[in-house]
Design brief:
The protein is of the alpha+beta class. It has eight helices and ten strands. The chain has helices at about 50-60, 70-85, 95-105, 180-195, 205-220, 235-240, 260-270, 275-280, and strands at about 1-10, 40, 70, 115-125, 150-155, 160-170, 200-205, 245-255, 285-295, 300-305. The strands form two sheets. Strands 1, 2, 3, 4, 5 and 6 form a six-stranded mixed β-sheet that branches. Strands 7-9-10-8 form a four-stranded mixed β-sheet, sandwiched between helices. A hairpin with a 5-residue loop joins strand 9 and strand 10. Helix 2 packs across helix 3 (about 95-105) and helix 4 (about 180-195) packs parallel to helix 7.
Length: about 325
């Protein structure tokens, strides 16, 4: 049995030109190991759920919050497990912040407070999962109060050895004052409008309440869309609040583990032609912005743009 642990603080290490591993692009998937390969992955069918359940039991008994298992962290753990299992015979196993940071970068995780990995290699006879039963009881990472999420992977080889890698992650904390975040977005959007020779938008309290409600709904029900699961659109939500309008438009954003979530939200909108058009639409006169935080400390942003009816309409 071999146990290793490594810790990485801050952002991951970017890949350099000439590195052996290339970053995964948007939409890429890890190529599955084929039957007949020297290595086999146990990710399919979620065979690793019992190990996660055991970990959660350890934390529950210690009075700690449960960890959220994330598929993207599973992918990072699988990259590390493959890398370790494919090492040359006699080559020592390395667990360094750089290697773990590279795996996290490749699956799109660039910013976080801390990350750490647990590596365990054991020989098995029939069941490569059961040999890791009890692995968490003696692992300090499992009782770390700061970690919020985990990913796990096991790879087996033809010689009867199983390599388990689990990656623990502590997210950056969401801002405590969400109304201050809303006002920062308001300021940034008006700065952009002034730079483009447009009049500033005026804050609309009732419209902000509609925006907050939509952000909170997306956070609570884990969706990201202008349409609610019931099919209600921005105009429906605004009309239900008895706010009159001639035109209404909406920008939404989700980001997590960003060092400056406001600037990221505004930049993402500016980089999107449709969202940018809403920001610099001369006709809009009022806006309302609402921000909500989800269980993963991610931030949902909703900004509504409004043109009220003309007098007498």
């Amino acid at each position: 049995m071999l146990l290793l642990a490594g810790l990485l603080t801050g952002s991951g290490t970017p890949l350099q030109s000439g590195d052996r591993l290339a970053p995964l692009q948007s939409g890429d998937r890890l190529a599955p190991l084929q039957s007949g390969d020297r290595l086999a992955s146990l990710q399919s069918g979620d065979r690793l759920a019992p190990l996660i359940d055991q970990l959660q039991d350890v934390r529950r008994q210690a009075g700690l919050p449960l960890l959220q298992r994330r598929a993207v962290l599973d992918s990072a753990a699988l990259l590390r497990a493959r890398e370790i299992a494919e090492r040359e015979p006699g080559q020592r196993i390395e667990s360094t912040p750089e290697l773990m940071g590279t795996a996290l970068n490749r699956v799109g995780i660039d910013l976080y407070r801390r990350a750490a990995e647990h590596i365990d290699i054991r020989q098995f006879r029939t069941d490569p999962v059961s040999v890791f039963t009890g692995t968490w009881a003696a692992d300090a990472l499992s009782l770390d109060t700061g970690f919020t999420a985990i990913g796990i992977a096991i790879i087996t080889d033809a010689n009867g050895y199983a390599t388990l890698v689990s990656i623990f992650l502590e997210d950056l904390q969401a801002p405590a004052d969400l109304e201050a975040v809303e006002q920062q977005v308001f300021t940034e959007i008006n700065r952009i409008r002034r730079r483009n020779g447009l009049r500033r938008l005026r804050w609309h309290d009732e419209l902000a309440a509609v925006a907050r409600a939509h952000s909170a709904d997306m956070a609570a029900r884990a969706y990201f869309d202008h349409l609610s699961p019931e099919g209600r659109n921005p105009a429906d939500r605004t009309a239900s609040a008895r706010i009159d309008f001639t035109r209404i438009a909406e920008n939404i954003e989700y980001n997590r583990n960003s060092p400056d979530p406001v600037l990221k939200a505004v930049q993402d909108w500016w980089d999107s032609p449709g969202h940018r058009a809403n920001i610099v639409e001369p006709a809009f006169t009022h806006t309302g912005i609402g921000v909500a935080v989800d269980a993963e400390t991610g931030l949902y942003f909703t900004q509504l743009f409004l043109l009220p009816p003309s007098p007498g309409e």
